[in-house]
Amino acid sequence: MTADALAAFGYELGVLKRIRRSGWWQAGVRDPESVGEHSLRAAQLAALLAAEEGASPERAAFLALWHDTQETRTGDLPHTAVAYLRKPEPREITADQTAGLPASSRDVVRAAVDEYEARETSEALCAKDADKLEMLLQALEYQDIGVRPVGEWIESARTGLTTETARRIAAAAVALSPLSWREIR
Length: 185
Hints:
Blueprint: H1 2-14, H2 23-26, H3 35-53, H4 57-66, H5 71-74, H6 90-98, H7 103-118, H8 122-144, H9 151-160, H10 164-175
């Protein structure tokens, strides 16, 4: 039944609220952000980046919303696992996740993941930059509360950015306090 498949997928997506971003444990963060928390801010940042880059904010945010949904099946694999495990192909996981969905829902999710992974559209580039920028902001927030070994996350995020807007935001973020938003009007 269509409603059953959609409800079951909704439950699966809820797992993202409980899966922690595991790389932060290696930096000493006891209770790191969840994949769901990361994805929300990444989607919001993707919309902002796209607006500044002349792309579709709605599409960029939509792509960012789906970019890590496969982690319901794999968990969040830290960068250090790459040497030991084959990186799962997100499109394959998404195909499995959506196999029982009605065609319209299945196709929209698969198309979003495919566009994000292909990185050929401005919206996909903004969504990918938002993923990196979100990691940068999170690293700077953790650093601000005393987590010191986050330099590699900051550097990885900065070198992975492709849009000019994301590069400018990253440079500003590094120079600002995470509480600077309280002073900007």
